[in-house]
Write a structure and sequence with these properties.
Layout: E1 9-13, E2 16-20, E3 23-24, E4 27-28, E5 31-38, E6 41-50
Antiparallel strand pairs: 1-2, 2-5, 3-4, 5-6
Length: about 70
């Protein structure tokens, strides 16, 4: 992670994991990160989408399009 993070939520997506919200040294977060791994090489990037309200200790549930 680009910063220490706790009390976040993770949800599986098709090609990786979304890391949502949580608390860091900057306070409660509204950023969403995308974590992908391939052959033990992992990368993380911040998505352009953010939560409208910073959240911690949240529950995230994937909802399929179909």
């Amino acid at each position: 992670m680009p910063l220490p993070l706790c009390m976040h939520s993770m949800v599986p997506l098709i090609h990786g994991q979304a890391v949502i919200g949580g608390i860091s040294t900057d306070g409660v977060q509204k950023k969403i990160y995308f974590l992908t791994c391939s052959n033990t090489i992992c990368s993380i990037s911040a998505l352009s989408q953010e939560l409208s309200v910073p959240r911690q200790m949240l529950v995230a549930i994937p909802i399929p399009d179909s």
